[in-house]
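Render this sequence as a predicted structure.
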Amino acid sequence: MSNDSGQINRRSFLKGMAILGTLAVLPGGLLTSRCALAQTPVPFNPQNYKIYRNACPRNCYDTCSLKTWVKDGVITYVDGASESTFTNGAPCIKGLSYPRRVYSPDRIKYPMIQDGRGSGKWRRISWDEAMHRIATKMLEIKKKDGSMLGLALTKYSGKFGVLNYAVEGMMSSLGYTSRFVGTPCWPAGIDAQNYDMGDMWCNDPEDMVKSRYIIIWGANPAWCSMHTMKYIYKAREKGAKIVVIDPLLTQTAAKADLYLRIRPGTDGALALGMCRHLVDKGLVDTEFVTQYSHGYEEFETYLCNNITVEWASTICGLSADTIRTLAEEFCAQKPSTVWIGYGMQRHVNGGANVRAIDAFVAMTGNIGLEGGGARYGHLQTWGYSYNAMLQSPPEGAVGFVGATGPKGEFHGAVAGAEAEASYSDRPLNINQTAQEILDANDPPIRMLWVACKNPFAQDFDRNKMLKAFEKLEMVVCVDQFFNETVQHADIVLPCTTTFEEWNVDSSYWHYWISINEPAIKPMYESKSDLEIATLLSRTINKLEDGSCTFPQKFEPKQWLDKEFNEGMAKMFGISSWEELLDGPRKAIMPSSAAWYDRKFKTPSGKYEFKSELCEKNGHTALPEYKPAALGKRAFHLFTPHVQYGIHSQFINLDWMQVFYPEPFVYLHPDAAAQKGIRENSLVKVFNDAGEVELRARITTNVPADFLVMYEAWFPGRKFNVQNLVEDTPADMGLMKTGAPGAAIHSQFADIELISHEGVS
């Protein structure tokens, strides 16, 4: 428990509790239970609460530092930690809803087995029985195939604490298995920035207050990083201009000084047009390109021979004058910065687009400046030892020997004893999960372990996923709710929430680190990923001694000890992770600017306009234009995140459904008129992957050739955006993440009216 005595901003506490609906605010600032309004209210007394340190582990820019208020062993309120200047004492609406997540009546309470996958006939079993069934199946796979490659793991970002990597460690401790590698989130941009600068590294977002010109390109921080917005506002108060480039009129775009609607996937054309104008007007930062870059002369030649502002205008849909003005304004103010959003690189040409934007920022000399930079993300504060993940396989384990083909595909087979030195796990593309399961042979995937992930909500081509799951002999899900993937599992294991386990969390955007301590005991029979791994190790070793090397003692504090090292201690100015119990800490950096010394990690040690490594990996050496996808359907389909949810998390809570009572498809009035659709009409959206039925909303916030459906899980409804999203790959991502990215936004669909029933 924290040593903090428990002071909290009274207004935010009262407001938060009223929002959550657990308490009512009465005149005079008194609190009372809503079910007891007729009774005498109980005054709020901070001394009656214990405060615990927690951290939001969701896949979100903000990774909030939290304080959890507990009274009589019950969580009553979650507040932001004011010690973090980034979180600044205020979690988002999702964070305020956390108590309901913990105490939701829909939470999975016990290990369960389903009699007939997809039947809904669940029955409770003990942890011992669940582990025995799982361990027996694993040993059966090893005996049948001579290896553990028939066991596959799909795990990603549902929970991002460092101890959640115990899932990977558990798999490694069983032997060489099949792993779904890569990420659907940001891989094309990661590769692009590595080609250009040798690493993905962004300025501290808090230094955005120093920016004098800010372009937010394909990001929507008003929804997805609300804590960064205060720095953007402060920069504007000091005179900065805020520009948003996006195909959709987002909430961030509505708050900008200038909104530029661009055609989807044409970001590279716009950036290259701006680059060409810099050359034409003599606005290139000569010092940067001559002293700190490699290949600039070749890039300038490419621009002069292939790119014009008028060409860029035709491609991206903005006027030539707008492109020229944007480039000139950006150069006129230093420092200037571009925030490169993850959405804009989720196209078939996403990596090429990011490289073009990087090149524009580099040509203006804004890389390496406080308040400047091409901001994408970073992993500077993720220097853990990864002890939980890096477990060794049992002696004599048989694995996979593979080679990489020209398109990044893997070829290989089970290794013989003579090839032991080259054993590895079998890598499978996480962005083509269904196809990989269907195609895998020698051996086939027989058992799938799902953790920190909901494939039916996050992976692509749901109809293909249904066929893939039919091929599997056993599916085990570790989760908190009966989501759609759990519905297609054989066994579900209940896992702890953030507030019931030890962990530590870093951000890929800001530079703060936060401890996560148990605020309450685990509810029901839930266990953490780490405890599940130790329990499985004990079980399977009883059946066959030596078959698993994962430690069999569950001592989470000792696991945290092993995750911290001298480098982490120095970065955060602490001697032990236990100092984080007094509050989150910020990394001690020489500068808030990435690449402040302009010593890049590329082969040349400079910023590389020309990357021989990029060319070696099958792309162009220069950041040349790569066309956007062309669709066979009439409408471009976008499936972005909702404001108050992350994938299939949060919206399933009854408290949150007031924001999203049902799903809608949003379309432009012209498109609606063409299709005979009215507000709230029941429609069908369809393409080659599948179809969905839902109601329509008509708005000018989307272009006339767009359909927009927000990704979320609505319990009890068949709606799923993945019915319409094919597993189309992006151009980059293989180099750094093991698989190409997902072209989530290079999707197309059509729409037709079903009925006007219910339309007023």
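Summary. The two ends are 55 Å apart (CA to CA). The first strand starts at residue 23 and ends at 26.
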